[in-house]
Specification:
The complex is a heterodimer of chains A (364) and B (358). The longest helix of chain A has 17 residues. In chain A, helix 6 links the parallel strand 6 and strand 7. In chain A, strands 2-1-3-4-5-11 form a six-stranded parallel beta sheet, sandwiched between helices. A six-stranded mixed beta sheet of chain A has the order 7-6-8-9-10-12, with helices on both faces. In chain A, 36% of the residues lie in helices and 19% in strands. Chain A has two domains: 130 residues, Rossmann fold; 174 residues, Response regulator (Rossmann fold). By secondary structure, chain A is α/β, with parallel strands linked by helices. In chain B, helix 3 packs across helix 12. The radius of gyration of chain B is 22 Å and the shape is globular. Helices cover 72% and strands 3% of the residues of chain B. Chain B has a domain of 219 residues. Classes of the chains: A alpha/beta (364), B mainly alpha (358). At the A-B interface, strand 2 and helix 3 of A face helix 6, helix 10 and helix 12 of B.
């Protein structure tokens, strides 16, 4: 692909209203105001916590040039639109809406505020002034699976999951594929809790999985409950979103963490420099949006090396978690030998791979 | 020695009116202390809470929009609570209303004109809410099962039903397998009352229901019977007032109102079916009903107060960076003082010596 073309330059210009009208912050007079909307309280760990760490990092990296405001614990649905609008109305020129359910409200408010830029996490709708961003969580899941596959004695991993949306299903499948790449006998059992955040239900589900023989647990929910339950039951745990070793000093063998720090700083810089345009960003290990947490002390060097090798493979593009052949758990081939799954197929995933027990609740 | 509350034989009329004022002053005093302790200017905080959210036309529209479902559900619940029928499951009845109304919208789409489709959606929603409320009513009248438990448990059943619908049969085929229905067609959306806001016709429906309930409680014989059944069950029984009829009527009225509110949310600000259609309006309306003293007029005011507090909490976060826990604390303080003042209007605190008390 040529690095420069007239068409591309025109497209960039057209997508960049800033190039034409220089607003006051671009002239360096006053700091750029940036707003964040969070789906849960910031807390000590979890999805929202990682976004807030990144907000603070951005404030530090661009000290004096940006100021930020956030609204936490805003449920997806009818209230989101008002809060996003309020953030735009009160002068924030860049707004990060950090949950899938904010998608339609973000698009609606963006139409009313054409000179404000919006960044929506994990959605699929974009607009002239709305970009989306997401992380390749599944890459970290695959790596965590390698560690889990080596550490399990019972060959059963337990997975506490929130809702059967593609992002979560992708994680379950990648984890299982990673595990079976080093331990073909290992299997994954899933319990759906139908909530992103409910420590009570999460730890109940964790205990159920342990009772069914799982000796390594992981979760796609927001609290630290599963890691704590693993600590109490003396089994292993793979933490998600944040490093949770303080909640499971013996249990946690590794963690899949989200790192939005650089992305947020870059996007704010793009607005400051007048270069922001709506993108669809999907970054992973290579871009530093996914990072593996510290290993547990029980994880031996051989396992560490194995995972690090795979990590380097993913970073250089040599290794793809969904590298064929991949069969679903009813025996149907989903990815042919020699091929790997494209982004479009990934983002619509609605089946379990071989090694996951049970049936997807949403499957028709 | 033991402390207890003694019922006042005749609560003072003046105290009844002064109680909310007292509660407001006490809340503001506590607010001053809390906000100052956090190093914020308390005047700015109170301004952010009570003035900022409704300083604009859009803000007022949002305020009324948020109050509408609370007003509607609270009115329905109060009818039941007056009769000592404890419907705790309005959230589930709302969900069923949204499912039925939304189902009609999705099935018919733009095949029917708005003036036919919207009333159909509301009728379907009200009937579905009533049907959901009929289950605890039947269990209560047939088996004497406690309606507090059965109506509450049905909330979870309703939310799982909605979850299944948006995950499987009604899932938007273009939605990347995310659990939500497609957006409703324009003719299934409620007309907007104030241009460029989200305030829609469901607010008028809420007002109409409040007015109807007021007339009903004061003028209609069933309303009177329900009040008697609540105040003095054995007297009601003696007078030949049917408990069975009271329970049925109370549950169905609450279910219908919650069902209407569900359609109002689906066809109003949301415009599609999501795994959760309400941020807990069905439960918040229980507070509204009691803060409004189970009176339709009081409920209308209480729903405005509660929604203002809610908007104020967001505004305090946006403008002052107060954490949501503090805004929650402030809201709780106001409700605490309101209900405490109410208790003291009707009861007198007493301390009795142990010897006397035996």
């Amino acid at each position: 692909m040529p690095s420069f073309s007239r068409r591309r330059m025109l497209a960039t210009l057209a997508a960049s209203p800033l190039a034409l009208a220089m607003p006051s912050w671009a002239q360096g007079k006053e700091p750029l105001k940036i707003g964040f909307i969070y789906v849960s309280p910031i807390g000590d760990a979890g999805w929202t916590h990682q976004h807030d760490i990144a907000r603070l990092a951005m404030e530090k990296n661009l000290a004096g040039r940006v100021t930020t405001k956030y609204v936490e614990n805003v449920p997806e649905g009818v209230d989101a639109e008002r809060v996003i609008r309020e953030l735009a109305q009160s002068g924030n020129k860049l707004i990060f809406t950090t949950s899938f359910g904010y998608m339609n409200p973000t698009i609606k408010v963006a139409q009313q505020f054409p000179n404000t830029f919006f960044e929506h996490a994990t959605g699929y709708k974009t607009a002239r002034n709305v970009g989306t961003y997401n992380a390749r969580f599944y890459e970290g899941r695959y790596l965590a699976g390698i560690v889990a596959g080596k550490m399990t004695k019972s060959n059963v991993a337990g997975y506490v999951a929130a809702f059967p949306i593609p992002e979560v299903v992708m994680g379950i499948n990648a984890f299982t594929l990673g595990m079976r790449s080093v331990n073909p006998k290992a299997e994954t059992k899933v319990v759906w809790v139908s909530t992103w955040f409910d420590p009570g239900r999460e730890s109940e589900a964790a205990n159920t999985l342990v009772a069914q023989g799982a000796d390594v647990l992981t979760h796609h929910t927001d609290s630290t409950a599963v890691v704590q339950a693993a600590e109490a039951k003396k089994v292993y745990a793979v933490a998600y979103h944040s490093d949770m070793s303080k909640y499971g000093p013996n249990a946690q063998i590794t963690a899949v963490t989200h790192v939005w720090d650089k992305y947020y700083t870059d996007r704010a810089k793009a607005v400051l420099d007048g270069l922001w345009k709506p993108d669809k960003v999907w970054g992973g290990i290579r871009e530093g949006m996914i990072a593996m947490g510290p290993f547990g002390k029980t994880v031996g060097n051989d396992v560490r090396d194995l995972m690090k090798k795979a990590e380097a493979g993913i970073a250089t593009g040599k290794l793809h978690p969904f590298q064929g052949p991949v069969k679903d758990n009813e025996g149907k081939e989903r990815v042919a030998t020699g091929q790997s799954l494209g982004d479009d197929a990934l983002s619509k995933m609605d089946y379990y791979v071989e090694g996951v027990q049970g049936k997807l609740p949403a499957a028709k | 020695m033991r402390a207890y509350l003694e019922a006042r034989p005749r609560p003072s009329r003046l105290a009844v009116w002064l109680a909310p004022l007292f509660a407001a002053v006490a809340t503001i005093v506590v607010g001053f202390v809390v906000f100052s302790a956090l190093g914020r200017n308390p005047f700015a905080a109170l301004h952010a809470f009570f003035v900022e959210p409704i300083a604009t036309r859009y803000g007022v529209a949002e305020w009324l929009l948020k109050a509408s479902p609370l007003m509607l559900i609270g009115t329905g619940l109060a009818l039941a609570y007056r009769a000592n029928v404890w419907n705790i499951g309005a959230e589930g009845q709302l969900t069923l209303g949204a499912i039925a109304g939304g189902g009609v919208a999705l099935a018919i789409g733009d095949a029917w004109p708005s003036f036919v489709l919207l009333p159909m959606m509301f009728i379907a929603g009200a009937l579905a809410g009533m049907a959901w409320a009929a289950i605890p009513a039947w269990l209560r009248t047939r088996f004497n099962a406690n309606e507090i438990l059965t109506s509450l448990m049905l909330v979870y059943v309703a939310s799982l039903l909605l979850s299944w619908l948006v995950h499987v049969p009604w899932r938007d085929p273009e939605g990347f397998n995310f659990p939500q229905s497609k957006m409703f067609d324009a003719n299934a959306m409620l007309p907007i009352l104030l241009p460029e806001t989200r305030l829609n016709a469901s607010f008028l429906i809420a007002l109409a229901i409040v007015a109807l309930a007021w007339l009903f409680v004061r003028r209609h014989v069933v309303g009177f019977e329900m009040r008697v059944a609540g105040l003095a069950p054995s007297a009601a029984d003696y007078a030949g007032i049917s408990l069975r009829r009271t329970v049925w009527f109370a549950m169905l009225a609450g279910g219908a109102c919650a069902g209407l509110a569900g359609v109002g949310e689906a066809a109003g600000p949301i415009g599609q079916l999501l795994p959760s259609m309400s941020p807990g309006y069905g439960f918040a309306a229980i507070i509204v009903a009691f803060v409004g003293r189970l009176h339709p007029g009081g409920i209308a005011l209480a729903s405005l107060l509660l929604s203002l507090l809610y908007l104020g909490g967001e505004s305090a976060q946006v403008h002052l960076g107060l954490p949501s826990a503090v805004t929650g604390l402030f809201e709780g303080t106001l409700l605490f003082f309101l209900l405490a003042a109410d208790v003291l209007v009707n009861y007198r605190p007493r301390i009795a010596r142990a010897a006397v008390a035996t």
